[in-house]
Amino acid sequence: MAPSSQKKQQTLTSFFTPKTPSSAPQHPQSCPTDSQSLSLKRRLTDQKADNGSQEPRAKKPKAQTEQSGQQANNAHDYAYHGSRQSCAPDTHAAATRHNQELHRRFVKKLGHPDAMSWSRRNEADMATVDHDDDDGDAHHEPAKPPKKGAKTGKLTPMELQFLDIKKKHMDAILIVEVGYKFRFFGQDAQVAARELGIVCIPGKLRYDDDSSEAHLDRFASASIPVHRLPVHAKRLVAAGHKVGVVRQIETAALKKAGDNRNTPFVRKLTSLYTKGTYIDEHGELDQPRDGAPAAGYLLSITETKAKGSGTDEKVKVGILAVQPATGDIIYDTFDDGFMRSEIETRLLHISPCEFLIVGHVSSATEKMMEHLSATTTNVFGHRSRVERVPQSQTMAAEASAHVTNFYADKTNRSLLGSVVDLPEPVKICLSAMIKHLDEYGLQHVFDLTSNFESFSTRSHMLINGTTLESLEVYRNATDHSETGSLFWALDRTLTPFGRRLLHKWVGRPLLDHTRLQERLQAVEELLGKQSTAAVDELESLLASTKMDLERSLIRIYYAKCTRPELLSVLQTLEKIANYFARPQAACFDSPLLADAAAALPPVLPLVLSHLRHINPPAARRDDKYAFLRDDFHTDDMHDHQLAIAHVEHALESHRTDAAAKLKRPSVDYVTVAGIEYLIEVANGDAKAVPASWVKISGTKKLSRFHTPDVMGLLAERDQHREALAAACDSAFAALLAQIATHYQPLRDAVSALATLDCLVSLSKVAAQPGYTRPLLLPESAAPTIQVSNARHPMAERTLDSAYIPFSTTLAHPSPLAHLITGPNMGGKSSFVRALSLLVLLAQVGSYVPADRLSLTLCDAIHTRTGARDNLFAGESTFMVEVSETARILASATPRSLVVLDELGRGTSTHDGAAIAHAVLHHLVSSLRCLTLFITHYQGLSRLAHGLHGLDNLHMRFRAQADAHGHEIVTFLYEVAQGVSHRSYGLNVARLAHIPEKVLHVAAAKSSQMELAMRTRRLNAAYLTLNTLFNHPSSADQLHHWITSVEQL
To answer: Which GO terms describe its biological process (predicted)?
Structure first.
């Protein structure tokens, strides 16, 4: 065995030598039995305790003393004893005591429950403990200093820097730039790992000094590559999180030349994102076409109590919604009742992705917002974020002063006049929204006051929330997706901004007769010129416009646009303006088409003036240094370019000096692994290399060096390059600011193109078989809706079989209302919804699926369909029914269309029938509005005999018995005059697979009850007839008798 191996073996043997008292002689032992081992272990433990009590020890704090007791218990199983060894050689007593002390320290460390972390924290203390021996000759080497980079139990300077930023933004997930990665720390890392599917390295999760994490000395962390930041940031934002990006704001070269070269990189929060504020150079959030747009509206809402309580409660509400991605701003102030139907209507129209609640709102309003937006399966199609702003007693005055100061600082003082007359609740919301968007750097969207639009403008029909849902205007009622909705049936748009405009058109039908005629005329002209060169070229132009120009323009306005995107926007606008500048493009006769086409050529000079600054090849490859043409370089750019050229010339001249030192005729620079200006020297000639040269890399045959002059010149060049990059960024920002001053004319041009896209889409709908242009009756005509062979616009696209058409008329003075009866599943609801949708389509400006439709404009469509409760407000199904009915009775006018489906079914038969009777009578006799009333109370049909303007309709069917005696109903889905006196509910129950024995009992009971009812009616008819014989002059009795006979 080698000497070194022998020495190592002796050391290991001595460490595991059996421990015995110093007074006991050492004798060879044979290997003991198990019982002897246990006895020796107990004696050894007792002896160790005795020896330990005699040795001097350093004083320990109370906590450490208590801890040592626990350590001793844990160390019991690791106690060293000679019974586990075979016969060991005799050693010197001093060496034995030294080994015992080493063993005691070893067990003390490993016996602690947190041995490793406890050892790290106390490493320095353990190294300085003075161990005294009886002979006093034991020698201990001093403890070694901790290695560089070893954990010391403290956060790194970079983590402290992150913690300082995090404490200011506890509600955001921070993504921190660290070298060539972006990292998450603490709880943020855990959330990112869950949402992004990346690895989270364990560590501290909390950002405070909680004792539960005292044993951890590093934050939990996760990381992503730099180039994947946009992808992962969008995923986090789409999941509903608020995301902040912390970047290094100084570069390595500038830091090396600065005074803070030995400190961490300066980092600052450069970007904050949420769903509604994600305005970035990488475009909007990924979102399927079904559902609401991801980068949607931020809605600020404030509420004050007006009067009343309970069902008489009235609140005054102010809202302001802004879509930073497009610059659209909607505001409104209104009074609302205890059902909060007005708030529901606006929320369903706007579909906000974020709420900013100013001050306190009532529990009913809170529950309404939570009901509509608190889950990912709600009617908005996404979970909405909610933030709150406290409201002081003087909020109104503070908001007015803040808004005034905000607009007073603008160069265009006319902006102030546009907002000074806004209602007080709207000003409160505007002030809160300005402060909120200031955190994201988007407050300048409110400079665009031309985008302010009132929600309650009287030029459009206001469709309430109940109607939006029951008619499935934006989303179907099954899974709340867009497929199967009215918007889905109309959407043939080719551009994103055209699609958004059509979305507005569908939800806000026109009340202006002139504007509606212009829209229908434009659709008719495009339909007539279909397949002509003009229309085909227009469609081709729209289809080739892949960019979302509306969003790109607002990113230019926010100075968040990239160089390739700016080039694409300007070139797209140039192509569009050039197309409409041709004489052939101005071939439209319709005023709406002609005005839209004429609005595009004027932006051509403006676009060309900005394109002159840009070098297209460099812009496409995002080359900031060559992005601007040479003629438009700034003085700073010229200075730094000259400085870089001077440094590179000096580097080239330095080759002569380097060759002289190496005693060569010449030397050449090489570039290896991205490192430039390396000088290669064969390893055999390395002696000629000056000592001041720095070796960078090498191989077996040669080495590569940087000379001191090269290193200095490269550092100088890097500084100038980074300064040049900053100058190029400044010049680009100046160009964006210059273009932003012309935002409004460019936005108007894009709006004109969106109008053309919507009209082309409606013309494609009109080209479908069986569609016709609606005939708008004069405004002076009596309210009328007359339709022939009409069909449901969505059902005919989704049904496998053909839709059965219907014809009907509603008009003043008669028939003013239809009372519709028929069997369950007979098509009653489909009929009334189809008629309502035809009216809606006509006032949007679309052709309708019918042979003929003539109508006067309806100022509103009110619906009360379906059975649903309102648990969040503590309201039963019947309470919801009558509350919505009360709202309809309060707001309907003679020019409204009212649809009531099975009113009164949520309570007892007598009460429900009485309420339905009274409401129908009020609608026909007092309000005189056009009404469609569905009911299963066949007794209401008697109203038609004494109430002028009401007639009875029913859905046709055929009933016959099968071989088993079961009554089979065949639905014909045709509308006909008359009353259906049975609903055939048992037939529907059989279709729903109710057990046959249950159906048998139900059929028997139904026959029994029907027989009893007929018997009572027959008796009543007999008594009435008897009265007539005794009193022949009673006209009322005669009428009652005739009605009874008809019912029988």
So the answer is: mismatch repair; mitotic recombination
Residue 373 forms part of a structural domain: yes
Residues 657, 933: Cα–Cα separation, whole Å: 101
Residues 166 and 255 in one domain: yes
Task: Print the SS3 string covering 13-28.
Answer: HHHCCCCCCCCCCCCC
* Sign of torsion over alpha carbons 392, 395, 401, 402: positive
Asked if 192 contacts 198 with a C-beta cutoff of 8 angstroms, the reply is yes
Residues 567 and 651 reside in one and the same domain? no
Q: Which two tokens stand for residue 175?
A: 């993504």
Considering the domain architecture, whether residues 350 and 373 belong to the same structural domain is answered as yes
One-letter amino acid for residue 566 of the chain: L
- Residue 657 and residue 751 share a domain: no
389: in domain: yes
Contacts of 845 (CB under 8 A, 6+ apart): 505, 510, 516, 519, 520, 523, 762
> How would you classify the pairing of strands 950-961 and 817-821?
parallel
Q: How far is CA 830 from CA 308, 791, 796, in A?
A: 39, 10, 11
Residues 971 and 1006 in one domain: no
586-642: pLDDT as tens digits: 688 899 999 999 999 999 999 999 999 999 999 999 999 999 999 999 999 999 999
The DSSP secondary structure of 389-408, one letter per residue, reads E---TTHHHHHHHHHHHHHH
Contacts of 471 (CB under 8 A, 6+ apart): 486, 833, 836, 837, 840, 861, 863
SS3 letters across 70-121: HHHHHHHHHCCCHHHCCCCCCCCHHHHHHHHHHHHHHHHHHCCCCHHHHHHH
Distance CA 837, CA 816 (A): 19
> Residue 81 falls within a domain, yes or no?
no
Classified as helix, coil or strand, 6 is helix
Determine the angle formed by the axes of helices 635-662 and 708-740, rounding to 10 degrees: 160
Q: Which domain holds residue 327?
A: 298-457
User: Which pLDDT tens digit goes with each residue over 957-992?
Assistant: 887 777 666 677 777 888 888 887 666 666 667 667
Query: Rounded to an integer, what distance in angstroms lies between the CA atom of residue 487 and that of residue 382?
Result: 19
Joined tokens for residue 1013: 């009812």
pLDDT at 385: 82
Map residue 697 onto helix, strand or coil.
strand
- Across the range 995-1022, mean pLDDT stands at 75
Q: Six-digit token pair at 354?
A: 């974020």
| Distance of alpha carbon 75 from alpha carbon 67, whole angstroms | 12
Helix, strand, coil % in the chain, rounded to nearest 5:
50, 15, 35
| H helix or E strand, kind and range, residue 719 | helix 708-740
CATH number at residue 971: 3.40.50.300
Closest CA to 896 of 904, 908, 884, 888: 888
For residue 37, name the pLDDT band (cuts at 50, 70, 90).
very low
Q: Are 667 and 616 in the same domain?
A: no
CB 249 within 8 A of CB 268: yes
Angle between helices 563-581 and 604-611 (to 10 degrees): 140
Cα 1035 from chain centroid?
Answer: 69
The label of the residue with tokens 């002796």 reads 10
Cα separations (Å) of 25 from 92, 97, 441? Answer: 11, 14, 85
Under DSSP, the state recorded for 129 is: -
Is 164 a domain residue? yes
Compute the chain's Rg from CA coordinates.
Answer: 43
- Type of residue numbered 695: K
Distance CA 909, CA 907 (A): 7
Is the pTM value of this prediction over 0.85? Answer: no
**Contact, 585 vs 752, CB < 8 A?**
no
pLDDT in tens, 369-413: 887 775 544 455 556 788 888 888 888 899 989 988 888 876 566
Domain count, the chain: 6
Residues 781 and 882 in one domain: yes
Same-domain status, 255 and 305: no
